[in-house]
Structure formats: C-alpha cells, structure tokens
Amino acid sequence: MQISSVNDVKIYNLSHGKSLPEVRNIQRRIELIQDFEMPTVCTSIKVSRDGQFILATGTYKPRIRCYDTYQLSLKFERCLDSEVVAFDVLSDDYSKLVFLHCDRYVEFHSQHGHYYKTRIPKFGRDFSYHYPSCDLYFVGTSSEVFRLNLEQGRFLNSLQTDAVENNVCDINPVHHLFATGTSEGRVECWDPRVRNRVGMLDCALSSLTEGTEVQGLPSISSLKFNGSLTMAVGTSTGQVLLYDLRSSQPLLVKDHFYNLPIKSLNFHDPLDLVVSADSKIIKIWNKDNGKVFSSIQPQTNINDVCIYPKSGMLFTANEDPKMNTFYIPGEYMALGPAPRWCSFLDNLTEELEESPESTVYDDYKFVTRKDLENLGLSHLVGSSLLRAYMHGFFMDIRLYHKVKSMANPFAYEEYRKDKIRQKIEESRTQRVQVKKLPKVNKELALKLMEEGDDEAELASRKKKGKALPSILGDDRFKLMFENPDYQVDEQSEEFRLLNPIVSKVGQKRKKKLRLLAQQAAASQQVMLCLAPEETSSEEESSDDDKSWVEEVREQKESKKTSQPQFYQIKAGEEFRSFNDMARKQKLQKASLEDRLKLEEQSGTSNVSDTAVGSKQLTFTLKKSEQQRKQQQAEREHHQERKKLRRSAGHLKQHSTEEESSMHKFLPGTFTTRAEGTNKCCKI
Predict the structure, then answer these.
(1) pLDDT confidence of residue 431
(2) Total structural domains in the chain?
(3) Which residues form the Nucleolar protein 10-like N-terminal domain (predicted)?
(4) Are 130 and 176 in contact (CB under 8 A)?
(5) Rounded to an integer, what distance in angstroms lies between the CA atom of residue 507 and that of residue 571?
C-alpha cells in the first residue's frame, strides 16, 4: 500500500506492493482482490450495475476477467479471438455482455459464455446501448452510425452524419439523447425517436483558451452525460469542456496541460466533481468553478478509469499487468466511504495513519554472487531464501544481518570507528583548510587538480570567462573520493584495456603521490609528538595508547628541562661557521665562469701541465625544452621574414654610385655588401 497526499487529500493505492515476483508477505501487504491483474496490459474496466462484479478486458492473449467482490477473487476468465476495443454490460450482473473487437466483429456473451457473433461494415471505435428500443449504436471510421436492434436481431437504417469519422458516442440516461463526437472537433446530437439531428456543437474553437498552443485541429476523444442537461466533452489536445445543452458555449474549459487526449470522463455527484483522465494523470476537480480537488499520477500510462458507485474507490486500467485500486477515505473533503464488501478499509486506513510509511525494499537486501561467496551462502542459490533479480539476488534483511554478524563479528566496531572518524573530520572542517588530496582515488584527484589548474590558466589567458567547475567540488561525485568501494583498480584488466600505455606523466604523478604520503606521515608524527593531548573525547583509547602518550609527554618534558648538549669535533674535520655555509651556497648558485674567476682571484685554481700539455675540457650546456621551442620559433620567424622581404634590385645602380662617391671622399675605407645592406669598415 502506498499513501500520497495531494491538496491535503490522502490517496491510498491498494494495489501498490512489493515489485518482486512471487514474494508475498501477508502480514505487511494488502491484496484487496486476489489476482487483480492481466497477463500484459489491461485496456478497459467496468463495474456491473448491482456492484457485485468487476469486469476487465486485456491482453495477451485477448481475454475478459470477471471478479466477484463478495468473494474478493476471480470468478471466471474467457479468452477471445481478437483484442477488445470497447465493451458494455447490458444486464445488472455479468449475464449479458457485448464486445466490439478490432476486426469489426461484435460478440455477445451470456452467462454460460459465447452466445453470438456478427460483423459491422466498418471498423468500430465505440458503441452505446439504447435501453428503450434495444438498439446498439456503433461509431467508427465512417460517417454513418450503424444501428443493430437486439430485439429483432437485424441491422436498421444507419444515421448519416456530416463527419468523416466518429470517435466516441454516448446516450443521455434521462431523455435518451444520442450524441457522437467527430474527428473534426464537433458534437452531433440525434433524437432516437425520429432519427433526426437536433443540434451540433463546435467544440474545436471553444477549446482554445488564452496561451493554448495550436498544433492541429482538436478532435473529440471522450464524451459523457450527467443528468438531463450537463455534458462533458474531452478533446485530443487535453481540454475538457462542460456544456449546458441549452447553450452552444461551454460553461467551463479545463486544461490538463499535457497535450494528451482525454481518455475517460466520469462524474461524482455527491461532491459535484468531475474525474477526467489522460494517459498520464487523473484529475479530480469541481464542475462549477474548475478548482482542483486532487490528482492521481500512476507510474504507468492509463487506458481507462472506473469509479465504484457511491464510494471513494476507483479502478484504473493501465499499460501494465497490475490494475490499480485507489481509495480516498470518506472523511472531510473526501470522495466517500469504502464499499460494503471492503468496509474494513476504513478502520485499516485509520491505523495506517498512525504508523509510519515503510519503503518498498525495506525487508530485503540485494546481494551479488561475490557477496554470497564472502558470506559463505553460495549453497543457497536456487533455494526459496534467495530470489534472483537482475545481476544478483534478494534475501531477507534479517537473515543478512545475522550471517553478517557471524562472518565478521567486529563489523560493528569498525562501523563505530568510521562514524567517530567522520565526526572528527566534520569538526575539523571549521578550522583553516589546507588543500589536500582525498583518501580515495588520490591519483585521480591529483590528475583532476592539475587539469583544473591548466584550464583555469587557459581561461585567464583567453579572458573568455571562468573555468568549468571541477569534479572535486561537485557534490554529485563526492562519494567517488570518500567511499572505498569506488577505488580505481589499476591492476584490473578493464583498466589496462582502457589505458594500454603508461605515460611518463602518470609515473611522475605516482612519484609525487609517494612524496606527499611521506610528507603527510612525517607531519602526522610531528603533530602527535607536539600535541598528543589533542585526542577526541568520543574515541576510546586503549591502555597501550595511554601509556605511549605518557611516554611521549615525558620525553617532551625531559627535552625542555635538559641541559644544552655539546658536540665533539672529530679529527680530520674542519669547523665551518654559518657564514662559510652561506658563502658555499652562494657559490653553488653562480655560473662556472664566475666560479673559475673567483678561484683565480683567490689562488685556489690549479692548472697541471703534463708532457702532452695542459688539458682543457669543453662542454655545452643542455638547453631546456622551453628554450629550444623559443629558439625554433625565432628561427621560423626570421625565415618567414626573409621570404616576405621586398626586392632591392632597383636600388643597385643607385648604391654603386654612392659607393664610388664614398671612395672619393673617404680615403682609407672599403665597402662590403651583405644581404642588401651597405657596411663600411676602416682598414
């Protein structure tokens, strides 16, 4: 059972239960009617006039099922030759049934079963029964309305409408006015006594309200009379129009806002409510002002809705094997009381309001084969204690906890320590936070940090905006860096297939992780030595830990109170002051040329001559990758500039004249030409 509250109205879904096959817990599950379902899909559902029988049609195979409410079980089931488009109950009980099939056949059933079968000229979509004349009116893919008289057993003259096709029809229960809804969005009304049309309503234009998006001409998808003057019309675009038969304008237009055809219309007279349904939602609203009373939205699409007379219970036929049963208790602002055959629901709903609602899978634990092997329960596969589901099994949660405690008796202590550790970390979040790696997937986190820094730097260079948020700061991926179950196994075959080549960047990252781990371990030891008194009051320390803390505290106090320590210089060692150390570090940072000059000035440089002369070592400094790229870019730039250089051939004659004049006026000089420029050098 599922309880929902919409607009302060509680709705009980009596068909909602465990979705596990063949798992039934009678103490915690309500099964109002036994086997209240279809093999695949239920298409339509109705209640007999005496209220004792519920009849439903569905597939596959096409069939009809009749349920006896007095016995709360299935009474009979009959299979049919083809799918049922619509059906009706002609008698007060199930003894006279009429079925309209999708292959144009009309089938009659009596109390014992199949009685007669005939065929109409065109494919039918709906039909209505006229009790005073015993006529059946069939509408479908034709402009004609076919009439079949059950008393005479023959077809009568059909009614000729102005429509191309007729979708639905209905007969007023008071004055027996016949109405049919067309595909052009009109409603034609006929008087069966004279077989003439007495009126026509254009509902297509009236259904358009302010803000309605027009995608096509709305057709009539449902039709229902209430009393002698009220008529409700549902359109294919999701609007419900309420008409007074004395007016051509609608009294009220109610939009479902789903743009889906209205499939069912019902009236609830005690509270003046209209129950309209499309394939997504059932809306219950007041017929005078259109105010929403409540709404029901099942998990599957809706095919038909039926209200049990004079009660707060309704049934739905869905695109699902299970037929839903909804009950709105008969309290203040509710539909009505429970039916007589299930009057215990009133007391049951009162008890359920006091107890909290339980979740769907609270009694079961999902385990995989690996979990069963770890628990030592592999021998239970195939027994009634395990139910196969997807890639694992469902087992009773009590059995799981019992076996878990036996397999790992210290699991609670580990769980308790983890919780204490989490609380300590939560309390530490109030302090100044230092950017550090998470406990799980450290390498992945380091990679994301580096990529995030690169993206942020790139975004700042381009000045196009901020960088995208990192996965590390996204709460949706929080568990990936906290839960050890999400640890990436780099030794697995899947990881090796996705990452066949181990890059140098990955190796450097691993080396960096090792260094960070060593630094973290060293800092942790220092913190323990400096502040051993910062222990959590929630975590219980053992006697060994307390003794170790006392030893560390004693060592610390002894260091504070001890005398200065003296060190002895060993033989052969040279004592150097702090100035010598600073000079040595400064000398190491200097270039080789500066160090050689400094050694020559101080006289410490020695050059040894041998028989082959003085030896000299030549070497070239290795340039960094950035310097090589910069020089390569400069060379390419110079080459490009040379290609784009303008020709200076027309200046050749002028330049020779200038050179001759310079020889005249500047003796003792000579001129050279190189790359289009004049250079003068003294001899």
Answers:
(1) 55
(2) 2
(3) 1-355
(4) yes
(5) 45
